[in-house]
Amino acid sequence: MSMSNKLRSHGKGVVVWVLLAMLVLGLGGFGVSNFSGRVQSIGSVGDTEISINDYARALRSGMSAAQAQLGRPLTFAEAKALGLDRQVQAQVFAEAAVSEQARRLGISVGNAEVGRQVQAIRSFQGVDGKFDREVYRMALRQQGYTETQFETRLRSDVARSILQGAVAGGVKAPEALAAAYTKYVTEKRDIAFAEITDADLTATLPEPSEDELKAWHADHAAEFTKPETREISYVWLTPEMLKDKVQPDEATLRAAYEERKSEFVQPERRLVDKLVFPTKAEAEAAKQKLDAGTASFADIAKERGLTLADTDLGEVSKDELGTAGDAVFALTAPGTVGPIDSDLGPALYQMNGILPAEETSFEQAKPDLETEAVMDRARRMVSDMTSDLEDRLASGATLEEMAKETDMQPGHISMAPDTTDGIAAYESFRTAAAKVTEQDFPELGNLEDGGVFALRLDGVTPAALIPFEQIRDKVVASWKAAQLKKLKTDRAEEIVAAVAAGASLADQGLLVSNATGLERSGFVEGAPATLLATAFDTKPGAAAVVAQDEAVFVVVPVKVTEADPQAADTKQVHDVLSTRLEQSMSGDLAELFARASETEAGLTIDSTAINAVQAQMQ
């Protein structure tokens, strides 16, 4: 995440609730007690310091986001290779720069507002849904915060958001630019196209000589090289291997059902948007526009510098809506209610859909509960065996002895860079197999599903060019495929020249297909993905060659149709593009402001502190 992307994420308004939620979520997942001593910050912008704990949390949060995107665990070494450490560093210094400017300008919020926001955070509420000071203190203590530190940071974050909203809010996209983009995006084309087949060729594919084949083999060595293979012996144990030894009883399953009953018994829910206003009068004025049909909920949100994504509460139950629950759930069809007082002020609520209550009985849930219970118990059984397995390996037990004396199962695999079969489907195994040397003793490693493994490198077969005599047929096929594609491309170029001279595709004896009303974001079935893009990049009436893999096509744009700027669909595209342009421009302004603030206030970086934090992540 670049600095500009981070700043763009704040949007154009002061959405305090979102900011608070992000702040509370940012508390989790890192033990701040790991960082202590004389060095307390990684640097500063002016008088605003960045604590080592805040930097550590930002790193951990960035890694969690990257892991969610990749769908797998991420080591810190991998994160560094992706540049995540530098991105997070840019992010925290950019935030500090804006906070420093807010401090210098005297922008702040009072104690009453800070207290109100703290009490509204659900993570600090007790079972009765009300603010609980003991819960608050315990949550902060677990994350290494004092109440003063947390509330000071909260005050600073809100002030920064206010300043960013003032700097980057209210940006309007230039109409000429929005119109140009809209015209570009909504333009449609009719095209004619044809694939060049073997039957369309005017030249015959020649037969290669032995010398030509050998030269082709030598010149395209990468295509005919057998990759390095690593001969790996291993033993492994997974929860799946132990599941037959587990039989959960009825009482355990029923207890699991009761514990997770909220998953199986869903109350009736609503799809809801919420829009908060500074005053009740403004909320009532907006409601009048909605009732009169002169504005939509999206229009009202846009007036406040928001999008529907900013107002979306998702699927919510009656209880989750608090004071608005009765009014929203009284609606039997999509509609808007309000203004209703909320934690953040007077709000309008738009109900977009009704999701009926759902209940999964114990008997219906039992198969899934049983499977989960079995696998959970099997994972714990593997975990319980880990110490013994590690001790055996540390004492010099061979893989063969491990297979004989424990529940671990033996195996052997020839590992090439693209091997993903069997145990090689686990990334942790592939990583270990790529690093192991013949001098290494087997060590216990962890698999992604809770299993364990140990491996040994028996030998390495280096990458080598396969002798010509062994793969002559493959060389012939490769040579012919390349020559055939060249003949097709040459024929396509001849057709392009003929079209330029006034001929049509049909005049060339080709099997011509036609497609009408195509948009830039569309596709043409049976044609390369690049064909449509090429058609939009080619002048109407001219022809162009499109080659992908073994296929060669010729495409001719026949007609260009520009969208009616007054049409509802075109206006919608225009509005979406305008909003995106405004968001982009706002992000750019926020980024420039942060950079200017860094330059004005002065930036100091403690590389030793940064390295110390990163070392804890290894």
UniProtKB/TrEMBL annotation:
Its main location: membrane. The keyword Transmembrane applies. The keyword Translocase does not apply. GO terms for molecular function: peptidyl-prolyl cis-trans isomerase activity. Keywords: Cell inner membrane, Cell membrane, Chaperone, Isomerase, Membrane, Transmembrane, Transmembrane helix. It is found in: Cell inner membrane. It is a single-pass type II membrane protein. Residues 248-367 form the PpiC domain. GO terms for cellular component: plasma membrane. Belongs to the PpiD chaperone family. This is Parvulin-like PPIase. The lineage of its organism: Bacteria, Pseudomonadati, Pseudomonadota, Alphaproteobacteria, Rhodobacterales.
